[in-house]
């Protein structure tokens, strides 16, 4: 087999033929589903006369083909593994095809497949071509009419996009439903679901008075787990009306929960399909984190109805046009609904850990890549999260009013069209009058920009001189980078007053919190009339997705932690302070010298634990140490063992010094009020569980007793899971095993809880965990065919159990590679994602580098899917 070839953005050409209307009929059968397609087609006015018609199609058995009712002869068309070509077609015509496909053998979960006995589809990005021959590209938009035929007993429910217009029974116990979707859409938004499902129904009245029926379809046993998703959906619908003036546009909106799904969820028009983990919640089965995740994913998919569906992408290089914008929208929604500062802290700490690592690794790519081999590999943190950061910068640059005018213009001007990132930015530029040409570089340049900042206060004349220097490191294929337009939000905090000082720049007074624009490689900003020596608070709210270095002393950081008016930077100062202490301890561990705890960190924590803090949710974040992954991201060479040891050392020392404070914090936030996923309760549980983590770091009898009691009380999953995790991670097997066993037996029937049971065990720091991973892979609740299980067991082990994954004998790497090799055949998309930790070899010592590369080589020797091929090639390049 020859190597798969890349697709280039510069090769984009408009389609020669359009589909104006698509009629589909599915006759469902697990092994032999028949799909009839009637495509109403016409040649594009600009296309040349006589252009051949090319349709995408994979794994389809062609049964019949006709144009305008005339069957085609063998010599009038050709079919290979990827497409069907008809050399000569009229200007306008009807194309009829019938194909046979096998949903039961579709383990890739792309196209039409079966999940727990039901039929469902996943078409983004290129799954529709596994259903029927079609111009499977987002710039072909058609109205759809879909008839689904199934067994009345095993598929009583038959769903597709749009509105149901006809239903009836057929001979031999079969029945059908026909659905009409009046909104032109690309094929990737097509969806069909058929099975034995139950629904929960609600109603929503839009701002302009349209009555919408809302349905969530689940397996019967999950009927009690939809309340939160439904409430979230209604909040999201209302929010989009207020924040963006966007209303829903059909009479029916459906969500379906499926167990086997590659991603979180999918925004198919009128029929969103969700990974069950992203929609089902119950206080006893889902944690606060899961409740919040469901809320944000329900909102995200709903928001796509405008940012993605009504206005879609011209081609897949524009993916961030819909994803970056929609993530930004869901982030703002969650911030408005919950604690805004905590939402920002959570998003940024995840971003700086995972996206920074991606941007620094061999698969680094711009938000708009210029080529790809497999688009399925580009649903990345860069496209989604960095894309969202870039939209956030735009909104801050132009300001909220112009941003709203710009988005209104975008939705109005391009409604029903497939457009580009330039089209979006042009609307923002038009609405604001601000020149965004330099800003466009954010879309084409990969890598995380680094800013080196220096400041100097001149006591004599009261000037504060700030020098900013930017540089974006080289990334694969991009060696020279240009200076970006970087908005830096800042304040100067007076060391005497502890207050933000008034800012005057070039004679203009700018209040006490402002945004300066870094556009040059190096730029100097002189603030005048600064009445006292300040500590600068830079990049407030993480105003740009960059790494900012400033030579802060520990006193400066302790000062900002206590005084910064920006909640985000107060938290960040604490993280920076902890990082300085951790750096010393990592060095001490590596050099074999005794570790000494920085008392400033202890005192800063003591202060936090005893000060009047109004925002308890932020406090919980401030008391949380940087994760091992984040610490690793800050080190030039990652020493996993030293990081683990240093972080544990800090935890233990803090716990010993502040034991009574943590106990008090625990008791003050312990409550048996009925569970609600509201911000107050979530903050209280967060604080209580942070306290318990510290107490368990000493593992004395009192702490163990608290954890056991919290587990046994069985009040809600957040508390139970946290207690079980701490017990499982403790050195005391006598307490871990009984708890794990009880939990595993109690929840054996619930796949989503079993996922958590897997994840808890494989993060154990003890070295025997590898045997446990191997053992759990044979557990009846585990299956390589279910992506949630693979993520919970293998993904969690490789991504979060750093000391054991990076074992010096290479056993962790070997285990991951074995799984990747097997999944390469079953589910290439999941296999390719799973390799990520191995691709980061360059950050480790030579021994580990060699071991990791050897596993990548072993994978490369297999017959690879394009997905895995692309990732492995880049990782070994
Ligand atoms: N478009 C989906 C989302 O962001 C994600 C997705 C991509 C789902 C590809 C399935 C396949 O909401
Ligand atoms: Zn999305």
UniProtKB/TrEMBL annotation:
GO terms for biological process: proteolysis. Residues 229-440 form the Peptidase M1 membrane alanine aminopeptidase domain. The keyword Zinc applies. Residues 555-877 form the Peptidase M1 alanyl aminopeptidase C-terminal domain. It is an enzyme of class 3 (hydrolase). It catalyses: Release of an N-terminal amino acid, Xaa-|-Yaa- from a peptide, amide or arylamide. Xaa is preferably Ala, but may be most amino acids including Pro (slow action). When a terminal hydrophobic residue is followed by a prolyl residue, the two may be released as an intact Xaa-Pro dipeptide. Its cofactor is Zn(2+). InterPro entries: Aminopeptidase_N-like_N (IPR045357), Aminopeptidase_N-like_N_sf (IPR042097), PepN_Ig-like_sf (IPR038438), Peptidase_M1 (IPR001930), Peptidase_M1_dom (IPR014782), Peptidase_M1_pepN (IPR012779), Peptidase_M1_pepN_C (IPR024601), Peptidase_M1_pepN_C_sf (IPR037144). It comes from the Bacteria. PANTHER family: PUROMYCIN-SENSITIVE AMINOPEPTIDASE. This is Aminopeptidase N.
């Amino acid at each position: 087999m020859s190597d798969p070839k890349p697709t280039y953005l510069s090769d984009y050409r408009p389609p020669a033929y359009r589909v104006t209307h698509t009629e589909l009929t599915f006759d469902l059968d697990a092994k032999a589903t028949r799909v009839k397609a009637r495509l109403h087609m016409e040649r594009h006015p600009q296309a040349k006369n006589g252009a051949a018609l090319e349709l995408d199609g994979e794994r389809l058995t062609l049964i019949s083909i006709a144009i305008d009712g005339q069957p085609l002869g063998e010599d009038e068309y050709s079919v290979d593994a990827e497409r069907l070509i008809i050399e000569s077609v009229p200007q306008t015509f009807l194309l009829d095809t019938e194909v046979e496909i096998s949903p039961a053998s579709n383990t890739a979960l792309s196209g039409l497949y079966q999940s727990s006995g039901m039929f469902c589809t996943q078409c983004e990005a290129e799954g529709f071509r596994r259903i029927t021959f079609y111009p499977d590209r987002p710039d072909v938009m058609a109205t759809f009419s879909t008839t689904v035929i199934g067994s009345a007993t095993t598929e009583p429910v038959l769903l597709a996009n749009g509105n149901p217009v006809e239903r009836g029974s057929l001979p031999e116990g079969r029945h059908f439903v026909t659905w009409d979707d009046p909104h032109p859409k690309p094929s990737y938004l097509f969806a069909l679901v058929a099975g034995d499902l139950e629904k929960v129904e609600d109603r929503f009245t839009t701002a302009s008075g349209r009555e919408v029926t809302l349905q969530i379809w689940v397996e019967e046993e999950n009927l009690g787990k939809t309340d939160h998703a439904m409430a979230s959906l209604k909040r999201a619908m209302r929010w989009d009306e207020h924040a963006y003036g966007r209303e829903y546009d059909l009479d029916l909106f459906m969500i379906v929960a499926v167990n086997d799904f590659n991603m979180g969820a999918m925004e198919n028009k009128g029929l969103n399909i969700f990974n069950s983990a992203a929609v089902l919640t119950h206080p006893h089965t889902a944690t606060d984190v899961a409740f919040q995740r469901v809320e944000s994913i329900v909102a995200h998919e709903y928001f796509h109805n405008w940012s993605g569906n009504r206005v879609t992408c011209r081609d897949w290089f524009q993916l961030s046009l819909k994803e970056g914008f929609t993530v930004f929208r869901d982030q703002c929604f969650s911030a408005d609904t919950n604690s805004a500062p905590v939402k920002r802290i959570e998003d940024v700490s995840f971003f700086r850990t995972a996206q920074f690592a991606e941007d620094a690794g061999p698969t680094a790519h711009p938000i708009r890549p210029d080529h790809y081999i497999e688009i399925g590999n580009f649903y990345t943190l860069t496209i989604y999260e960095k894309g969202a950061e870039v939209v956030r910068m735009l909104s801050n640059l132009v300001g909220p009013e112009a941003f709203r005018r710009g988005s209104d213009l975008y939705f109005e001007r391009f409604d029903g069209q497939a457009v580009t990132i330039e089209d979006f930015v042009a609307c923002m530029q038009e609405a604001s009058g601000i020149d965004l040409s330099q800003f466009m570089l954010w879309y084409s340049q990969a890598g995380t920009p680094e800013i080196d900042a220096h400041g100097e206060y001149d006591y004599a004349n009261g000037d504060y001189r700030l020098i900013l220097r930017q540089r974006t490191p080289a990334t694969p294929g991009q060696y020279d980078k240009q200076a970006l337009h970087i908005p830096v939000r800042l304040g100067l905090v007076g060391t005497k007053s502890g207050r933000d000082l008034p800012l005057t720049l070039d004679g203009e007074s700018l209040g006490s919190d402002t945004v300066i624009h870094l556009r040059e490689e190096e730029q100097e900003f002189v603030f005048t009339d600064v009445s006292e020596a300040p500590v600068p608070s830079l990049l407030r709210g993480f105003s740009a997705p960059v790494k900012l270095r400033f030579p802060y002393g520990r006193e400066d950081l302790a000062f900002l932690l206590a005084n910064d008016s920006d909640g985000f930077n107060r938290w960040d100062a604490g993280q920076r302070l902890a990082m300085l202490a951790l750096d010393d301890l990592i060095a001490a561990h590596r050099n074999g010298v005794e570790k000494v705890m920085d008392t400033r960190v202890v005192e800063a924590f003591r202060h936090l634990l005893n000060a009047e803090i109004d925002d308890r949710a932020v406090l919980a974040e401030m008391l949380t140490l940087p994760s091992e992954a984040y610490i690793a991201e800050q080190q030039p060479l990652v020493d996993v063992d030293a990081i683990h040891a240093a972080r544990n050392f800090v935890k233990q020392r803090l716990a010993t010094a502040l034991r009574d404070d943590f106990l008090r914090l625990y008791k003050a936030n312990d409550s048996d009020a009925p569970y609600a996923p509201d911000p107050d309760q979530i903050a209280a549980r967060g604080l209580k569980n942070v306290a318990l983590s510290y107490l368990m770091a000493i593992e004395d009898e009192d702490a163990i007793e608290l954890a056991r009691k919290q587990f046994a009380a069985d009040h809600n999953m957040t508390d139970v899971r946290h207690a079980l995790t701490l017990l499982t991670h403790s050195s005391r097997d006598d307490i871990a095993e009984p708890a794990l066993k009880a939990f595993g037996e109690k929840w054996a029937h619930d796949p989503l809880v079993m996922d958590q049971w897997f994840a808890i065990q494989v993060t154990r720091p003890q070295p025997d965990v590898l045997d446990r991973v191997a053992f759990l892979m044979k557990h009846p609740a585990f299956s390589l065919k279910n992506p949630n299980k693979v993520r919970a067991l293998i993904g969690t082990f490789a991504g979060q159990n750093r000391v054991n994954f990076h074992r010096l004998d290479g056993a962790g790497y070997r285990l991951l590679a074995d799984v990747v090799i097997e999944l390469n055949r079953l589910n290439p998309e999941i296999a390719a994602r799973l390799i990520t930790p191995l691709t980061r070899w360059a950050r480790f010592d030579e021994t580990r580098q060699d071991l990791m590369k050897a596993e990548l080589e072993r994978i490369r020797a297999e017959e690879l899917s394009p997905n895995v091929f692309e990732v492995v090639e880049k990782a070994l390049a």
